[in-house]
Amino acid sequence: MTRLESLCYGVMMAEGWTPGSRSWRNNNPGNLRWSKFQKGQRDGFAYFESFAAGWLALWFDLFCKCQGKTSTGLTGESNLFQLFDKWAPASDGNDPTKYALTVAVRLGVSPFEKLKWFIADV
To answer: Of 14, 49, 58, 109, which shows the fewest CB atoms inside 10 Å?
Structure first.
């Protein structure tokens, strides 16, 4: 498993990927609000034709963020705290600090790990 795939898995677990959850029903392991790969939207979140399509969307979104190729302001020098401040902002009722710590612990990395590290082996 690549580092980016591990990050995707960490996000999927933090998003509550369990049978019956919104992410499960929408084949959207990252609970993405929008993706160019989506089939449509339900309750403000993208839904996908299959888990594989949803996984690809999550992978692609994180890959672009790790490269600094999104409008979020993130770059390869950004860290997990900064990523999850954009991914799951407090303004949306989330706790981005807890999110970053949860994913970092699951992956066995520092929450200060730079995003470029996650794509070094892709």
So the answer is: 49
* Interatomic CA distance for residues 61 and 21, integer angstroms: 21
Nearest CA to 61 among 13, 25, 8, 122? 8
pTM here? Answer: 0.96
Q: What are phi and psi of 41, to 5 degrees?
A: -130, 145
Cα–Cα distance for residue pair 118/98, rounded to 1 Å:
20
* Cα atoms found within 13 Å of the Cα of residue 111, Cβ hemisphere only: 14
Supply 66's token pair: 């790790």
Residue 9 near residue 109 (C-beta atoms within 8 A)? no
The pLDDT tens digits of the residues spanning 98-112 come to 999 999 999 999 999
Q: What are phi and psi of 92, to 5 degrees?
A: -100, 10
